[in-house]
Amino acid sequence: MKEHWTLDPDIAFLNHGSFGATPRLVLEKQNELRAQMEREPVRFFARELEPLTDDARHTLAEFVGADAEGLAFVPNATFGVNAVLRSLDLDGNDELLVSSHEYNACRNTLDYVAGIAGAKVVVIDVPFPIASPDVVVERVLDKVTSRTRLLLIDHITSQTALILPVQRIIAELQSRGIDTLVDGAHAPGHLPLDLRALGAAYYAGNLHKWVCAPKGAAFLYVRENRRASVRPAVISHGATSTRRDRSRFLVEFDWTGTHDPTPYLCVPESLRVVASFVDGGWPEVMRRNHELALRARDLLCETLQIDKPAPDAMLGCMAAVPLPDGNATEAPALYGDPVQDRLLFERNVEVPFVPWPHPPKRLLRVSAQLYNTMDDYQRLAAGLREFL
Questions:
Q1: What sign does the dihedral 244-245-248-254 (CA atoms) show?
Q2: Burial track 116-153 (b if 16+ CB lie within 10 A, e otherwise)
Q3: 95 strand-pairing partners
Q4: Which of 363, 349, 330, 296 has the alpha carbon at shortest distance from 157?
């Protein structure tokens, strides 16, 4: 499978979860779109971009089970989370819930917005290792009060690679009149999605990760009864548009200034190309990746002589395992753990070490994509035995 990607053939690339990797055919499509854009830029941006965006939007809407009118393309999931949080009308009486596993960039946004409004951020301590999804539901509901305004929660956690029971949580909170903003950065292409059935008020997802679109492709989905109040983090021409043929939601989000739109215009090609790699399409892609991630996790637990830190049902195409404590007293620079560096430079294994929940505690997270094989994880295991 690796021949379908431009990845370095000498490196066991076990970190698809961070930035993804785009297949050759999708990159070729992006080059075609960029050539079209540069051949006549005015025609492209003024006349061709909107119908191309609508086509990509409708294809994506079918894939994630959403109303296309509520889907806006954004550069990344963090941008979508910013748009929602900075659109909220908060005050000092409000409480905002967030789990202890939340991705740092989005947690920073929540703290920033709460600080401006004087609102309170309430952290839900979710353990890892973890025994059951029920633990997550119980911990969330324990923190709900009459002042709770919103929950920000990962669909799949970045550090610990856990699939959280967001559908159950959303239903519980909605019955109490509380909205949920789902940070679904890892979910599209990782597990089946039906955003209508999920019922979240807001959902942000990346497309450059498991959908394998070019970097700069993501989406924000807003439930119909919340669209009028959500505006992009960048205010542009749409703020004073007099158009009546499109919603203000789409008018504002579809144009926030001149940018390269080809990453999200490639989403239909990404969906088609990745599905074509195996018989059975996307369901088979997800099944294979999930099975490989479980086998990799089992190998790592055997190598480290530890118990499985989470049930199989809480894992998708990634898995995280606890490592022996490191020596750092502060979080290292991004991808700066010394053992991680040795694995890359001495063993040609690219894999992330995560200082979580705080140094010297750390985790190892592996991803499983179609181009990976068990040989990749065997190389990792051999390196761990030597370096740890």
A1: negative
A2: ebebbebebebebebeebeebbebbeebbeeebbbbbb
A3: 120, 148
A4: 363
Amino acid at 118: G
* pLDDT score recorded for residue 94: 98
What token pair was written down for 283?
């369901």
Return d(Cα 71, Cα 66) in angstroms, integer. Answer: 7
Confidence of residue 330 (pLDDT cuts 50, 70, 90): confident
Q: Is the pTM of this model over 0.85?
A: yes
Note the CATH number of domain 2-21+279-387: 3.90.1150.10
Residue 333's pLDDT band, with cuts at 50, 70 and 90, is low
CATH class of segment(s) 27-271: alpha beta
Q: Where are the domains of the chain?
A: 2-21+279-387, 27-271
How many CA atoms, within 13 angstroms, populate the side-chain half-sphere of residue 308?
17
The label of the residue with tokens 């990344």 reads 76
Fold: same for 2-21+279-387 and 27-271: no
Decide if pLDDT at 303 tops 90: yes
